[in-house]
Amino acid sequence: MEEDNSEILERAHSEFKKQNFKDAEELYTTFISTCLQSRGCKASDLAAAYNNRGQIKYLRVDFYEAIEDYTSAIETDSRFETPFYNRGLIHYRLGFFDDAKVDFQRTLKLNPDFEDAKVSLRQTILDQQHKTNRGY
């Protein structure tokens, strides 16, 4: 069963890389469901599946569904910095600057060399200050 599930994950990653997002999303969903039922998956694999499925939803502009997947990835593996960063990007886009700052700061705590997170954190702080200065 675990071998079959690892094959599903490999196929999902392959479809994701080829930008066949519909197929990738279905495969990630199958992998996640099987993992949750069997509890026999590595946390890092499950977190990657949630993160990548969240990325597909982000690209589809299903922001709240993507946030749910990123949060599930974080709950599964709290040392995986990418879903913190990805969730922070959505919070930023939605204007939830405090939440974005927390996510970017957590990303940088886990990986201080994550350049995009540094840039995003700086931009979030600037935009939040501009918003405050305008009285919003």
Walk me through this protein's architecture.
With 136 residues, this protein is mainly α. 82% of the residues lie in helices and 0% in strands. It contains seven helices and no strands. Helix 3 packs antiparallel against helix 4. The protein starts with a helix and ends with a helix.
Give the count of helical stretches: 7
Q: What is the share of helical residues?
A: over 70%
Low-pLDDT residue intervals, each spanning 5 or more residues: none
Distance between the termini: 54 Å
Overall form: elongated
SSE run:
HHHHHHH
The whole-number mean of residue pLDDT values reads 95
Number of strands: 0
Question: Could you describe the largest sheet, including whether it forms a barrel?
Answer: none
What Rg is obtained from the alpha carbons, in whole angstroms? 16 Å
| DSSP strand content | under 5%
User: Structural class, from secondary structure content?
Assistant: mainly alpha
